Amino acid sequence: MSTILDTFIAPPCHDEIEILYQDEHLVLINKPSGLLSLSGKNPQNLDSVHYRLVQIYPGCTLVHRLDFGTSGLMVVARNKAINAALCQQFSQRTVTKVYSALLCGHLENDEGIIDAAIAKDPALFPLMSICALNGKPARSRYQVIERFYHPQEEGTLLPLTRVQLTPETGRTHQLRIHCQQLGHPILGCDLYGGRLLPGTELTPRLMLHASELHFRHPVHKQWVNAENASPF
After folding, report:
1. Residue 201 DSSP SS3
2. Cβ distance 164 to 142 under 8 Å?
3. How far is Cα 75 from Cα 20, in angstroms, rounded to an integer?
4. Has residue 6 got a pLDDT over 90?
5. HEC string of 87-123?
6. Does position 93 have pLDDT exceeding 60, yes or no?
7. 3 CB neighbour count, 10 Å cutoff
8. Sign of the C-alpha dihedral, residues 95, 96, 100, 102?
9. What is the rounded average pLDDT for all residues in the chain?
10. How confident is the model at residue 3 (pLDDT cuts 50, 70, 90)?
11. Residue 63 backbone class (left: φ over 0; alpha: ψ -120 to 50; beta: rest)
12. Helix (H, G, I), strand (E, B) or coil at 43
């Protein structure tokens, strides 16, 4: 069995977590890009969403995570009962998550579905891989918002597509690997080809933002429809 060796050290994140909504049960935040959701085993990776929020809301726990480079909406539970109730919604797939992203190149179709199982491979850590044999089912929908050209410093034009991504399952790196599978990786994605095209190497961040989160409040049962505009 392969041993997973995590050598990643997160650079300091000076951006603040934006608190969008809070009550005695939960907190809705806008996570900055470049901040871990949960502290790593390495003491140098102590700073995280959870580490910061637990100072303000003792006993709070994460219900779901966003990748280090992804920004946007997260819901955080303020006690174990709320965490269990929200986790149930996520596992039953009654929570809707919508992401904004910039993809390399111009997508041919205006919308579509990516249905490709995803597996962990300890030998390739931290990469995930598409694997029909051993992977867990994974499904994402995409819709093109606009196709455009981004002017580069040397005068060339970089073709990009702005899309709305809706994951129907919640696998690790799902949107990133599914976009690579489409042949149009997310701009700035160092793991799945988003820095390979000429002009993409210096992209300052992963161009993926959790822009919508829809779920039922676990106490008063009203729908919470959170929206947070993409910063790019």
Report:
1. coil
2. yes
3. 10
4. no
5. HHHHHCCCCEEEEEEEEECCCCCCEEEEECCEEECHH
6. yes
7. 6
8. positive
9. 94
10. very low
11. alpha
12. helix
DSSP class of 148: E
Question: What mean pLDDT comes out for the span 209-224?
Answer: 97
Tell me what pLDDT residue 199 has.
Answer: 87
How far is CA 160 from each of CA 103, 170, 183, 195, 197, rounded to the nearest angstrom?
6, 25, 12, 13, 11
Angle at 169 between CA 53 and CA 32, to 5 degrees: 30
Helix (H), strand (E) counts: the chain: 3, 12
Asked if residue 107 lies in contact with residue 101, where contact means CB atoms within 8 angstroms, the answer is: no
The active-site residue, picked from 6, 47, 67, 110, is 67
Q: Is there a catalytic annotation at residue 67?
A: yes
CA distance 65 to 36: 9
Report DSSP letters for 154-174, one per residue: TS-EEEEEEEEEEESS--TTH
Tell me the residue ranges of DSSP E strands in the chain.
18-22, 26-31, 61-62, 71-77, 96-104, 111-115, 118-120, 128-130, 139-151, 157-167, 208-216, 223-227
Q: In angstroms, rounded to a whole number, what is the distance separating the alpha carbons of residues 223 and 214?
A: 7
Cβ count within 10 A of residue 38: 12
Q: How far apart are CA 75 and CA 214, in angstroms?
A: 10
Using CA atoms, how far residue 147 sits from 36, 43, 100, 195, in Å, is 31, 42, 14, 19
